Amino acid sequence: MVNKYLNSMKYLLFFFTLTIASCNAKKESVQNVTNDTTVMKNQMKIEVLAEGSHGGYETSKYIIIKEEKTLREVFTKVNMIRRPGFPIPKIDFENEMVIALFMGQKNNGGYGISVKNIVDTDDSIEIQIKEVEPEGMTTMVICQPFYFCKIPKSDKNVVFKKVE
Q1: Contact by Cβ (8 Å): 53, 81
Q2: Does residue 5 fall inside a structural domain?
Q3: How many structural domains is the chain composed of?
Q4: What is the pTM of this model?
Q5: Alpha-carbon span 131 to 129, nearest angstrom
Q6: Considering the domain boundaries, does residue 2 fall inside one?
Q7: CA 160 to CA 62: how far, in whole Å?
Q8: Residues pairing with 158 in the sheet
Q9: Where in the sequence is the signal peptide annotated (predicted)?
Q10: Is residue 19 part of a domain?
Q11: In this structure, are residues 61 and 164 in contact, taking their beta carbons and an 8 Å threshold?
């Protein structure tokens, strides 16, 4: 009887440990706003403002933010489930704009979205978007991947293109 109880406890402890480990398997930089600066091929400077797996938007969308009011609205939506939330970045809207990418709701972890490259042509700016899908085992959690970056302001037409 005691052996049966100990075996049951071993399995319960193993299951509990496995569950906790899988929840922490892929830590993302959700709570820390990164200040990574990357210079792309065309020398357009990109500064990552925030990225994570729970962004609050259930559908895929790309937003070009050129004013403070829109920035506050979008960050308020992203911060609805966070305590503390991401601080709203200080943007010089005379010279900069923010690109916000939302992948939409996914049924498990392991998804991600980011800007891979920016091509500045004579008449447009092409934002090349990289989407990552999970490989192998993932956490079973509903997520909404998102990505914010700051780029130099432009009045050119902005075109979004998914790339590999």
Answers
A1: no
A2: no
A3: 1
A4: 0.71
A5: 6
A6: no
A7: 8
A8: 125
A9: 1-25
A10: no
A11: no
